[in-house]
Fold these 2 entries.
Entry 1:
Amino acid sequence: MTGKKGVSMSENIDTLIYTATFGVDAEKENARKSIYETALSMGIYPASIHDFYMARGKHQFEGFSVPAINVRMMSYNMARAIFQAANNLKVGALIFEIARSEIGYTDQRPAEFTTSILAAAIKENFVGPIFLQGDHYQFKLKKFLVEPQKEAQAIKDLIRESLEAHFYNIDIDASTLVDLTKTTISEQQKNNYEQTADLTVYIRNLEKELNLGPTVSVGGEIGEVGGKNSSPEELQAYLEGYQALLQAKGNFVGLSKVSVQTGTTHGGVVLPDGTLAKVKIDFDTLGIMSKECQTYGLGGAVQHGASTLPEEAFDNFPKKGTLEVHLATEFQNMTYDHPAFPKELKDKVHEYVKANCADEKKDGQTEEQFLYKTRKKAIGPFKKDCWDLSPEIQTEIRNKLVEKFTTLFNKLNVVNTKEIIAQVIHK
């Protein structure tokens, strides 16, 4: 595995990705370009999962749920762990994602995120399509109520930036705009499906403008995570309103999936001692809504906020036909709480959030609860400190993550999906 000038990319990639992340100006851009071109030359390429999800909607390739992993901290190291587990189990149905909020507090713009994932694939010799996803490109309700066009434009700008960075999978989250005070379910979902339809059209037009090639996989959402559980009736009202609007705008290609709320909370529910409460997911309703999605021509339903669930719960997702499962906080927890993670650095993280996130502490919240909920806000400020941890420490953390991803891939039944993905997704 060598670059154009005969340099061993396996040996050089650690230095190159560091420059691509922390370098300045031209050296950073050159490093990113080198990584991207090397990835393509090796058969590693960003792709859209749209066609595969359309096949799933027609009841092909059933029996597993695609893990969508939010890579927040030590991104190159964590992505290496994911690829190691994926290679060992021949996993191809796998998504790497980052949310609108995460882009901010982890200090990772889409181009940097893409480069980290591709560099990890190069390092681990993972060949094939890489699914990069913009997760929860979410409307902020307060801003939308004051200046709706400005808030919509902010998301459009992020979508353009993401597509230019080879994110060919975008999840639009206008579920924050659902108004439960309205009389009918359709009226409650109206702002949601209108904004999602508008952004879908925007994405389809960008596909042509940017000459992307693949049909971008677009996801919608009907229930804000941590809020009221979703119902099949809400899903129906949302999809009927959305599809009617999309057809009226020009019969554009629509959604490939819809995220629903069935009982989870991002990061889990933290008890006063800092441990996580057990959460009960309504798997039966999740299964019903996944089938309902397919009657509308979509791939199925998506479950958010699942990484902190007990391991025994994960077998239920493929059994109930869940299309995609989003996983994030547990991997952050495993990194922060790993015995090899330096205590001095962890103390600095805690000091930082106490000083800079004090206004986020809620009445009655213990310090353990507060630190658990806010320490993600330190990922960006301490990004370089984490990247600079010794190779030995990074290896220890990575090995533990490999174990976790191996378990999850088995539970979600995505083992041996490499060949299945290759049948549907082409460069």
Note: Residues 1-7, 266-271 have pLDDT under 50 and may be disordered.
Entry 2:
Amino acid sequence: MKDKPLVSLISAGLSKFGKLEGLYAREIFAEAAKEAYERCPKLDPKKDIKALYVGHMGESYEHQGHTGATMADWAGLLHIPATRTEAACASSGAALRTALQAVLSGLSDVVMVGGVEKMTHRSTADVTEYLAMASDFPFEQWQGMTFPGLYALMATAHMHEYGTTEKDMATVAVKNHYHGSLNPKAHMQKEITLETAMTSRVVAWPLKLYDCSLITDGASCLILTKPELASKFTDTPVHIVGSGQASDTIGLYERESLTSLAAAKLAAKQAYEMADMKPEDINIAEVHDCFTIAEIIAYEDLGFCKAGEGGKLAEEGETRLGGRIPVNTSGGLKSKGHPVGATGTAQAYEIFLQLTGQAERRQVKDAEIGLTHNVGGSGATATVHIYRRG
């Protein structure tokens, strides 16, 4: 399968991200689906789409399970097979992998895959508790550990081993807020200064307020088909040429290293080999910056730099628009927002826009190859996908 299209992405949709008061998750998903339909006028959704896969992390937010059938109904796709996938914050990255397998198997010619989460109507304490369900219950949750605390452990380990600084992490926040200011669908569309990031209140040292992603409502979706059918629907498909998924211990305390995510490295290795590509072939990436240290570690795990040099890569502006490898041009989880079930396919939405030249003020010139990196929990699940302009 090396360097051959696995599936073709023919359309994509994204809701506005933010505090979407008065809307249920199903209504938000319908907004994303509507954009995907409008972007692909040659598609007849009711006739052509044969299955739906939806990433959704938590029933607790709306006291609502059975997400697959609910979203199919509200996306106008009643009666097709509709399945929910759950892999914490990597739920829709895993859904994308599942949808890809469905098309490759020959079971479905055209499928929709997406994700959704409605979070902002709950208190910060409630959301923190629900998110913590993606960590180890007896040895992390029960002991009072939350995800800011877990990623703070990674940050302090990285600082100790490699000399990474609080300024390095703040630089990532400043970059992503700049990118988010260019994205009309981002939750937080405002730039911040390095001083603002550095002096914001501590959440779990060394992580401060601007090192942490946002509690957000949002939905995203993609439409996939067989590569040989793509021209029936669009003249500008985006091909997925590499896919990887891996897992690790759910508990951070069981890992061999706190400065790298083994699942992400393995998923990336699978995707690169399948695509017959190397890290230097990537023109643009959307990575899982739930915390700024997570983006720095992602640079290293994906091979964009050597271990310990992620902070330097950010400091030198290499991952900013105009840099060698622009990362999180959407604003990332940090500025665009992190409606956890929607994040994986929202990353793919940004790559779709970039590779089809539709990213407007944040467009990366001549982008041909993109990558998405979606992580669940503290790294117990990771998916990596590689995309090529058609």
Note: The first helix runs from residue 25 to 39.
